[in-house]
Amino acid sequence: MRILITNDDGINAPGLKVLEAIAEAVAGPTGEVWTVAPAFEQSGVAHKISYTHPMMIAELGPRRVAAEGAPADCVLAGLHDVMPQLPDLVLSGVNRGNNAGENTLYSGTVGGAMEGALQGIRSIALSQYIGPRNAGLDNLFEAAAAHGADVVRKLLDHGIWDEGGYRLFYNVNFPPVPAAEVRGLAVTHQGWRENSVFGVEPHYSPSGRKFLWIKGGRQDQPGPEGSDVAANLSGYTSVTPMRADLTAHDLVADLKDRLG
């Protein structure tokens, strides 16, 4: 199997090393793992692409390339320039921090997997939830490292992989617990944390200029039953099927009636 991996934490991020190990285990001894990842951290860029300016890429080693762009840019570079043949699978992550709930909408990690799906490649985003029970571990990615390859194999063997324009991809979040305490796998919907929206925090420079830091909400807020957030906080690895189509299909017919 030929696998392309990327992330949004940058090419030197520890989570990418975890993903490399996962990809190598899935690809097998005769497979290939190609890395095209951002030269610098690109967290929070969602599905951004560098449409209005070029990006420089640099080969750092065999099958290892850094790109001055977002994760979606890296997938485009990998598919259409770096790799001599298209991959069988795109993996994005392992993100440092969860991409469950509303975080999904901001996530560059999810954006990389989304781009892979739009390009017609099976794609999975992987993220590691962090909390009090795993933040102090020698390897806070312990749960992802221990269970990641098995989750990817299960999705490849038993997941739904459709065709068409907005084809499915998967968002996987490993729970904030040690590897031995992961309770299993849960198929979930995207959740919502009450009272946990993003905001801003103002600061002033020595010259008196005002700057704003984007500030995230609390990540320990519960989500609704059946959601990725609820599953993760209960010790389960969440698997959420997703599409890039943002249409509220459940409202289309009603809106037609309302607007005549």
UniProtKB/TrEMBL annotation:
Reactions catalysed: a ribonucleoside 5'-phosphate + H2O = a ribonucleoside + phosphate
Swiss-Prot/TrEMBL cofactor(s): a divalent metal cation
Predominant localisation class: cytoplasm
Binding site for a divalent metal cation: D8, D9, S43, N95
EC number: 3.1.3.5
Family recorded in the similarity comment: Belongs to the SurE nucleotidase family.
Protein name in UniProt: 5'-nucleotidase SurE
Organism: Mesobaculum littorinae
